[in-house]
Amino acid sequence: MMQISSTFGTLSAGDAGASAGARPTWPVGALGALTALSLAALLIALAAAGLDARTLNGESVWAKPARFAASFALFFATLALVAARLSPRAQASRGLRAAVAVLAAAFLYEIGYIHVQAARGVSSHFNFATLAAEIHFALMGIGAVALMVYVGAIGVLAGRDSDARLGPGLRRGVRLGFLWSAALTILAGVSIALMGGPLTGAPPPDAAALPLLGWSGAVGDLRPAHFLALHAMQAGPLLGLWADRRGWPVARVRQALLSYAALTLAVYAQALAGYPLLAL
């Protein structure tokens, strides 16, 4: 991540040649289009769920595509809003354009595969029934790591872009929020992959789960920690905006985000110890 982040910093600081011949708003427009595509994928999943009564692991086969599409919509909307506040020079940098291209490729592959597997009525994740399913799962994992690495890199770019339309609190919130999100999401995601699933125990057949989210109420579940980690990229900017409006010192933003990271790690440790987030 440090190598990519350094590249972003160098490009945003002096890539004048790129900004002269590029369209500064292209990354913002592309991120907006990806947000719209995510919402379209969500609508497709919801419509399919209304017509398709099949279930998988106790829920509609279209539940996972809907959750992923909703998460991607928020993910890309956040990136679009941040990119729109960057300076034209930073928006036109080769680093940011490359990042958006990687994000788009990873998203299209993952959301497309998840929807195809739902239509087939089989699992998209931790499906080792065939060699092809194993390869697709591995490629999705690589894409997920790439997504978060570039989130961290964009956070660094925003922090280093002196001409960005970011107040001091928002600048710190974006940088730390994106970096924490990248690091902690990769930690939780890799842990889930290595364990062969999000659960750290074997729940009884009639075990309760949290509505909509599906998190286990009987055994340890790493998905709550993954959720908190991923949404640090929203929590950071929102906290920064609030700090700027309230006139809080930047140090308070850093302290709050450190507390958020500590909470995420505590939930992660709780799951590893075998305890559910909420016992049901």
Oligomer type: single chain
Anisotropy-based shape: globular
Quick check: average pLDDT?
Answer: 89
Structural class: mainly alpha
Q: Supply Rg.
A: 20 Å
Ends distance: 39 Å
Instruction: Classify the helix fraction into a percent range.
Output: over 70%
Described by strand count, sense and barrel closure, the largest sheet is: 2 strands, antiparallel
Count of DSSP-assigned helices: 11
Uncertain segments are: 1-22
Counting structural domains, the number is: 2
Number of strands: 2
The H-and-E topology, N to C, reads as: HHHEEHHHHHHHH
What features would you describe in this structure?
With 280 residues, the protein is mainly alpha-helical. It folds into two domains: 1-165, no CATH class; 183-280, no CATH class. Helix content is 72%, strand content 1%. It has eleven helices and two strands; from the N terminus they run αααββαααααααα. It has helices spanning 2-14, 16-21, 26-51, 63-84, 88-91, 94-120, 131-160, 168-195, 223-230, 232-246, 250-272, and strands at 55-56, 59-60. A two-stranded antiparallel ribbon has the order 1-2. β1 and β2 (59-60) form a beta hairpin. α8 packs antiparallel against α9 (223-230). The relative contact order is 0.11. The model is unreliable at 1-22 (pLDDT under 50).
List keywords for this structure.
single chain; 280 residues; mainly alpha; 2 domains; two-stranded antiparallel ribbon; 11 helices; 2 strands; 72% helix; disordered N terminus
